[in-house]
Amino acid sequence: MSWAAHDLEPYLIKAHMGAAISVPFCLLGSYSPDLFTKWAVYGLDFSGNHKIVDDPVQLHRGFPGVGFTHSLLFAIVVSLIILLWSKHRIWATSFLIGAVAHVLSDTFDSVGVMLFWPLTDWHAHLDVWQYVGEAGRRKDAIAYYTSLGGAWDLFWVGWLALKWRVLTTAYFEAEVAPKDPLWPWLRRKTGDAFALTIYRGSAFFGVVSVLAWMVWALFVNDFEARLDWTLGGPSWAPRQGPP
Amino acid sequence: MRMSSLVGIGAARYSACTRDRYSPAVLDETPPTHTSQPGRSGRPAVVYWCVAGAVYAALGIASPPAFLLGFWESLLFVFGATVLAPKILGRRAR
Protein backbone atom coordinates (compact mmCIF):
# COMPACT_ATOMS: atom_id res chain seq x y z
CA MET A 1 0.00 0.00 0.00
CA SER A 2 1.00 3.58 -0.48
CA TRP A 3 0.44 6.23 2.15
CA ALA A 4 0.78 9.86 1.10
CA ALA A 5 1.19 9.10 -2.61
CA HIS A 6 -2.60 8.80 -2.82
CA ASP A 7 -2.96 12.27 -1.28
CA LEU A 8 -0.52 13.90 -3.69
CA GLU A 9 -1.00 12.22 -7.05
CA PRO A 10 -4.17 14.18 -7.99
CA TYR A 11 -2.34 17.54 -7.72
CA LEU A 12 0.42 16.40 -10.04
CA ILE A 13 -2.16 15.03 -12.45
CA LYS A 14 -3.90 18.42 -12.31
CA ALA A 15 -0.61 20.24 -12.87
CA HIS A 16 0.01 18.27 -16.04
CA MET A 17 -3.53 17.91 -17.43
CA GLY A 18 -4.94 21.31 -16.45
CA ALA A 19 -8.61 21.97 -17.11
CA ALA A 20 -9.26 18.32 -17.99
CA ILE A 21 -9.04 17.43 -14.29
CA SER A 22 -11.39 18.16 -11.40
CA VAL A 23 -9.23 17.92 -8.28
CA PRO A 24 -12.06 16.91 -5.87
CA PHE A 25 -13.17 14.06 -8.12
CA CYS A 26 -9.60 12.98 -8.80
CA LEU A 27 -9.01 12.93 -5.03
CA LEU A 28 -12.24 11.01 -4.52
CA GLY A 29 -11.06 8.48 -7.08
CA SER A 30 -7.67 8.30 -5.42
CA TYR A 31 -9.25 7.63 -2.01
CA SER A 32 -12.06 5.39 -3.22
CA PRO A 33 -10.33 1.96 -3.18
CA ASP A 34 -9.52 2.31 0.54
CA LEU A 35 -12.44 4.50 1.57
CA PHE A 36 -14.53 1.90 3.35
CA THR A 37 -11.99 -0.74 4.30
CA LYS A 38 -8.79 0.77 5.66
CA TRP A 39 -10.19 1.12 9.18
CA ALA A 40 -11.07 -2.57 9.16
CA VAL A 41 -7.60 -3.52 7.95
CA TYR A 42 -5.88 -1.68 10.78
CA GLY A 43 -8.26 -2.41 13.62
CA LEU A 44 -9.71 -0.05 16.14
CA ASP A 45 -6.61 1.77 17.37
CA PHE A 46 -3.08 2.84 16.51
CA SER A 47 -1.39 -0.16 18.13
CA GLY A 48 -2.94 -2.83 15.92
CA ASN A 49 -3.81 -4.93 18.97
CA HIS A 50 -7.56 -4.60 18.50
CA LYS A 51 -8.28 -6.40 15.24
CA ILE A 52 -11.80 -6.69 13.94
CA VAL A 53 -11.19 -9.12 11.07
CA ASP A 54 -9.19 -12.35 11.02
CA ASP A 55 -7.49 -11.77 7.68
CA PRO A 56 -7.03 -8.07 6.90
CA VAL A 57 -4.99 -8.79 3.77
CA GLN A 58 -7.75 -10.95 2.28
CA LEU A 59 -10.36 -8.33 3.19
CA HIS A 60 -8.40 -5.42 1.73
CA ARG A 61 -6.97 -6.92 -1.45
CA GLY A 62 -8.59 -10.32 -1.97
CA PHE A 63 -11.81 -11.88 -3.17
CA PRO A 64 -13.86 -12.92 -1.27
CA GLY A 65 -13.23 -9.58 0.36
CA VAL A 66 -13.33 -6.08 -1.06
CA GLY A 67 -10.16 -6.37 -3.11
CA PHE A 68 -12.28 -5.63 -6.19
CA THR A 69 -12.09 -1.95 -5.21
CA HIS A 70 -8.46 -2.16 -6.36
CA SER A 71 -9.37 -3.25 -9.89
CA LEU A 72 -9.66 -1.40 -13.17
CA LEU A 73 -13.29 -2.50 -13.47
CA PHE A 74 -14.22 -0.80 -10.18
CA ALA A 75 -12.69 2.47 -11.38
CA ILE A 76 -14.53 2.24 -14.70
CA VAL A 77 -17.91 1.30 -13.20
CA VAL A 78 -17.90 4.05 -10.57
CA SER A 79 -16.78 6.67 -13.08
CA LEU A 80 -19.62 5.58 -15.40
CA ILE A 81 -22.06 5.96 -12.50
CA ILE A 82 -20.69 9.48 -11.91
CA LEU A 83 -21.10 10.25 -15.62
CA LEU A 84 -24.71 9.03 -15.68
CA TRP A 85 -25.53 10.92 -12.48
CA SER A 86 -23.82 14.20 -13.26
CA LYS A 87 -23.53 14.23 -17.10
CA HIS A 88 -20.15 15.80 -16.40
CA ARG A 89 -17.37 14.09 -18.36
CA ILE A 90 -14.54 15.86 -16.53
CA TRP A 91 -15.80 14.68 -13.13
CA ALA A 92 -16.09 11.09 -14.35
CA THR A 93 -12.71 11.16 -16.09
CA SER A 94 -11.05 12.69 -13.05
CA PHE A 95 -12.45 9.99 -10.78
CA LEU A 96 -11.28 7.32 -13.22
CA ILE A 97 -7.74 8.70 -13.41
CA GLY A 98 -7.51 9.11 -9.62
CA ALA A 99 -8.74 5.58 -8.95
CA VAL A 100 -6.44 4.03 -11.58
CA ALA A 101 -3.49 5.98 -10.14
CA HIS A 102 -4.27 4.48 -6.71
CA VAL A 103 -4.55 0.97 -8.09
CA LEU A 104 -1.30 1.22 -10.03
CA SER A 105 0.52 2.69 -7.00
CA ASP A 106 -0.59 -0.26 -4.91
CA THR A 107 1.03 -2.73 -7.31
CA PHE A 108 4.37 -1.72 -5.80
CA ASP A 109 3.83 -3.63 -2.54
CA SER A 110 4.10 -7.37 -1.93
CA VAL A 111 0.38 -8.17 -1.98
CA GLY A 112 -0.51 -6.13 -5.05
CA VAL A 113 -3.94 -5.73 -6.59
CA MET A 114 -6.41 -7.77 -8.62
CA LEU A 115 -5.95 -5.48 -11.59
CA PHE A 116 -8.12 -7.44 -14.02
CA TRP A 117 -10.79 -8.74 -11.64
CA PRO A 118 -13.26 -10.39 -12.33
CA LEU A 119 -11.48 -11.90 -15.36
CA THR A 120 -8.81 -13.19 -13.02
CA ASP A 121 -7.95 -12.87 -9.33
CA TRP A 122 -4.23 -12.75 -10.21
CA HIS A 123 -2.46 -10.08 -8.16
CA ALA A 124 -0.20 -7.61 -9.97
CA HIS A 125 2.59 -7.04 -7.45
CA LEU A 126 6.08 -5.64 -7.91
CA ASP A 127 7.37 -6.43 -4.38
CA VAL A 128 9.22 -3.14 -4.03
CA TRP A 129 8.19 -2.96 -0.38
CA GLN A 130 6.41 -5.26 2.03
CA TYR A 131 2.68 -5.02 2.80
CA VAL A 132 2.41 -4.74 6.58
CA GLY A 133 -1.17 -3.51 7.00
CA GLU A 134 -2.14 -6.64 8.92
CA ALA A 135 0.22 -5.61 11.75
CA GLY A 136 -1.73 -2.42 12.48
CA ARG A 137 -1.13 1.23 11.76
CA ARG A 138 1.90 1.65 14.01
CA LYS A 139 3.99 -1.15 12.52
CA ASP A 140 2.74 -0.41 9.02
CA ALA A 141 3.90 3.20 9.39
CA ILE A 142 7.31 2.06 10.61
CA ALA A 143 7.63 -0.53 7.83
CA TYR A 144 6.45 1.79 5.10
CA TYR A 145 8.46 4.86 6.01
CA THR A 146 11.71 3.00 6.66
CA SER A 147 11.42 1.02 3.40
CA LEU A 148 11.29 2.08 -0.25
CA GLY A 149 7.66 3.03 0.39
CA GLY A 150 8.98 6.11 2.18
CA ALA A 151 11.22 6.87 -0.80
CA TRP A 152 8.17 6.56 -3.07
CA ASP A 153 6.30 9.13 -0.96
CA LEU A 154 9.35 11.42 -0.92
CA PHE A 155 9.40 11.23 -4.71
CA TRP A 156 5.85 12.60 -4.83
CA VAL A 157 6.66 15.32 -2.29
CA GLY A 158 9.67 16.36 -4.37
CA TRP A 159 7.64 16.41 -7.59
CA LEU A 160 4.90 18.48 -5.95
CA ALA A 161 7.55 20.87 -4.60
CA LEU A 162 8.56 21.52 -8.21
CA LYS A 163 4.91 22.21 -9.06
CA TRP A 164 4.13 24.18 -5.89
CA ARG A 165 2.24 26.84 -7.82
CA VAL A 166 -0.75 24.51 -8.21
CA LEU A 167 -1.33 25.08 -4.50
CA THR A 168 -1.41 28.88 -4.60
CA THR A 169 -4.54 30.97 -4.32
CA ALA A 170 -3.67 32.58 -7.65
CA TYR A 171 -3.69 29.18 -9.38
CA PHE A 172 -6.91 28.23 -7.63
CA GLU A 173 -8.58 31.48 -8.77
CA ALA A 174 -7.30 31.31 -12.35
CA GLU A 175 -7.11 27.62 -13.23
CA VAL A 176 -9.27 25.65 -10.81
CA ALA A 177 -12.37 27.54 -9.65
CA PRO A 178 -13.50 28.92 -13.06
CA LYS A 179 -13.18 25.55 -14.79
CA ASP A 180 -15.11 23.27 -12.47
CA PRO A 181 -18.74 24.04 -11.54
CA LEU A 182 -18.22 22.37 -8.19
CA TRP A 183 -16.15 25.29 -6.88
CA PRO A 184 -18.61 28.18 -7.48
CA TRP A 185 -21.27 26.08 -5.79
CA LEU A 186 -19.01 25.23 -2.83
CA ARG A 187 -17.87 28.85 -2.47
CA ARG A 188 -21.45 30.09 -2.41
CA LYS A 189 -22.35 27.54 0.26
CA THR A 190 -19.26 27.71 2.44
CA GLY A 191 -17.07 30.68 1.52
CA ASP A 192 -13.62 31.09 0.00
CA ALA A 193 -11.57 29.92 2.97
CA PHE A 194 -13.41 26.61 3.22
CA ALA A 195 -13.17 26.02 -0.54
CA LEU A 196 -9.42 26.69 -0.46
CA THR A 197 -9.12 24.35 2.52
CA ILE A 198 -10.86 21.57 0.62
CA TYR A 199 -8.67 22.23 -2.42
CA ARG A 200 -5.35 22.23 -0.56
CA GLY A 201 -6.11 19.99 2.43
CA SER A 202 -4.98 16.71 0.95
CA ALA A 203 -1.74 18.19 -0.43
CA PHE A 204 -0.92 19.83 2.89
CA PHE A 205 -1.58 16.62 4.79
CA GLY A 206 0.28 14.50 2.25
CA VAL A 207 3.48 16.55 2.32
CA VAL A 208 3.48 17.10 6.06
CA SER A 209 2.60 13.52 6.93
CA VAL A 210 5.48 12.10 4.85
CA LEU A 211 8.01 14.26 6.68
CA ALA A 212 6.42 13.75 10.11
CA TRP A 213 6.07 9.97 9.72
CA MET A 214 9.68 9.63 8.55
CA VAL A 215 11.01 11.65 11.49
CA TRP A 216 8.78 9.71 13.87
CA ALA A 217 9.72 6.31 12.41
CA LEU A 218 13.46 7.01 12.41
CA PHE A 219 14.01 9.17 15.48
CA VAL A 220 11.08 8.86 17.89
CA ASN A 221 9.80 5.32 17.52
CA ASP A 222 12.03 2.65 19.10
CA PHE A 223 11.07 -0.35 16.91
CA GLU A 224 13.37 -1.09 13.92
CA ALA A 225 14.20 2.59 13.60
CA ARG A 226 16.52 2.38 10.60
CA LEU A 227 16.22 2.83 6.85
CA ASP A 228 16.02 -0.39 4.83
CA TRP A 229 15.89 0.62 1.19
CA THR A 230 16.37 -2.89 -0.14
CA LEU A 231 13.88 -4.32 -2.63
CA GLY A 232 11.03 -6.00 -0.76
CA GLY A 233 12.03 -4.46 2.57
CA PRO A 234 11.94 -3.99 5.42
CA SER A 235 13.65 -7.29 6.18
CA TRP A 236 12.04 -7.70 9.61
CA ALA A 237 8.49 -7.72 8.21
CA PRO A 238 6.92 -11.14 7.55
CA ARG A 239 6.28 -11.91 3.91
CA GLN A 240 2.69 -11.20 2.77
CA GLY A 241 1.06 -11.77 -0.57
CA PRO A 242 1.26 -14.23 -3.44
CA PRO A 243 4.57 -15.91 -4.24
CA MET B 1 -22.02 70.60 -42.66
CA ARG B 2 -22.04 70.96 -38.97
CA MET B 3 -19.00 69.82 -37.08
CA SER B 4 -21.01 67.41 -34.97
CA SER B 5 -22.17 65.59 -38.16
CA LEU B 6 -18.58 65.25 -39.38
CA VAL B 7 -17.62 63.84 -36.06
CA GLY B 8 -20.54 61.47 -36.33
CA ILE B 9 -19.53 60.27 -39.83
CA GLY B 10 -15.92 59.94 -38.78
CA ALA B 11 -16.88 58.00 -35.74
CA ALA B 12 -19.06 55.67 -37.82
CA ARG B 13 -16.23 55.09 -40.36
CA TYR B 14 -13.74 54.55 -37.56
CA SER B 15 -16.13 52.14 -35.97
CA ALA B 16 -16.63 50.20 -39.22
CA CYS B 17 -12.91 50.06 -40.02
CA THR B 18 -11.89 48.92 -36.62
CA ARG B 19 -14.75 46.59 -35.82
CA ASP B 20 -12.63 43.52 -36.41
CA ARG B 21 -9.94 44.61 -34.06
CA TYR B 22 -12.02 46.28 -31.37
CA SER B 23 -15.32 44.46 -31.60
CA PRO B 24 -17.36 44.38 -28.42
CA ALA B 25 -16.62 40.72 -27.99
CA VAL B 26 -12.95 41.51 -27.76
CA LEU B 27 -13.40 44.62 -25.66
CA ASP B 28 -15.63 42.74 -23.26
CA GLU B 29 -12.91 40.28 -22.43
CA THR B 30 -11.69 41.14 -18.99
CA PRO B 31 -7.93 41.03 -18.74
CA PRO B 32 -6.78 38.40 -16.27
CA THR B 33 -6.42 39.86 -12.82
CA HIS B 34 -4.66 36.85 -11.40
CA THR B 35 -1.58 35.03 -12.45
CA SER B 36 -0.62 31.43 -11.93
CA GLN B 37 3.00 32.57 -11.74
CA PRO B 38 3.19 34.31 -8.37
CA GLY B 39 6.96 34.83 -8.63
CA ARG B 40 8.47 36.96 -5.89
CA SER B 41 5.08 37.93 -4.45
CA GLY B 42 4.50 34.25 -3.64
CA ARG B 43 7.55 33.90 -1.43
CA PRO B 44 5.97 35.11 1.82
CA ALA B 45 3.12 32.66 1.22
CA VAL B 46 5.57 29.80 0.61
CA VAL B 47 7.38 30.63 3.86
CA TYR B 48 4.05 30.95 5.69
CA TRP B 49 2.86 27.52 4.53
CA CYS B 50 6.24 25.93 5.25
CA VAL B 51 6.01 27.22 8.82
CA ALA B 52 2.41 25.99 9.08
CA GLY B 53 3.54 22.60 7.77
CA ALA B 54 6.40 22.46 10.26
CA VAL B 55 4.02 23.21 13.12
CA TYR B 56 1.63 20.48 12.00
CA ALA B 57 4.51 18.05 11.47
CA ALA B 58 5.70 18.74 15.02
CA LEU B 59 2.19 18.00 16.32
CA GLY B 60 2.15 14.81 14.27
CA ILE B 61 5.53 13.64 15.52
CA ALA B 62 4.40 14.29 19.09
CA SER B 63 1.15 12.37 18.61
CA PRO B 64 0.78 10.42 15.34
CA PRO B 65 -2.63 8.91 16.25
CA ALA B 66 -4.11 12.37 16.72
CA PHE B 67 -2.72 14.09 13.64
CA LEU B 68 -1.33 11.70 11.03
CA LEU B 69 -3.91 9.04 10.31
CA GLY B 70 -6.04 10.79 7.72
CA PHE B 71 -6.19 14.08 5.85
CA TRP B 72 -9.51 15.03 7.43
CA GLU B 73 -7.70 15.39 10.75
CA SER B 74 -5.65 18.22 9.28
CA LEU B 75 -8.60 20.11 7.77
CA LEU B 76 -9.31 22.23 10.86
CA PHE B 77 -5.65 23.24 11.00
CA VAL B 78 -5.53 24.01 7.25
CA PHE B 79 -8.76 26.02 7.55
CA GLY B 80 -7.30 28.05 10.41
CA ALA B 81 -4.09 28.65 8.47
CA THR B 82 -6.11 29.68 5.39
CA VAL B 83 -8.20 32.16 7.40
CA LEU B 84 -5.12 33.62 9.09
CA ALA B 85 -3.04 33.88 5.90
CA PRO B 86 -4.58 37.08 4.47
CA LYS B 87 -4.46 38.72 7.90
CA ILE B 88 -0.75 38.00 8.17
CA LEU B 89 0.35 38.27 4.54
CA GLY B 90 -2.21 40.52 2.90
CA ARG B 91 -5.06 39.41 0.65
CA ARG B 92 -3.03 38.47 -2.44
CA ALA B 93 -0.57 36.27 -0.63
CA ARG B 94 -2.77 33.44 0.59
Describe, in plain words, how this protein is organized in 3D.
The complex is a heterodimer of chains A (243) and B (94). Chain A has 11 helices and no strands. Chain A is 56% helix and 0% strand. In chain A, helix 7 packs across helix 11. The mean pLDDT of chain A is 95. By secondary structure, chain B is an all-alpha fold. Chain B is built from 6 helices and no strands. In chain B, helix 4 packs antiparallel against helix 6. The chains are: A mainly alpha (243), B mainly alpha (94).
Question: What layout of secondary structure does this protein have?
Answer:
The complex is a heterodimer of chains A (243) and B (94).
Chain A: H1 5-17, H2 23-31, H3 38-42, H4 56-61, H5 72-86, H6 89-105, H7 137-146, H8 148-162, H9 169-176, H10 182-190, H11 192-220
Chain B: H1 3-17, H2 19-22, H3 24-27, H4 43-62, H5 64-67, H6 75-89
What are its keywords?
heterodimer, A: 243 residues, mainly alpha, 11 helices, 56% helix, 0% strand, globular, B: 94 residues, 6 helices, disordered N terminus
Helix percentage of chain A? 55-70%
Overall residue-averaged pLDDT value of chain B: 70
How big a fraction of the residues of chain A is strand?
Answer: under 5%
Beta strands of chain A, count: 0
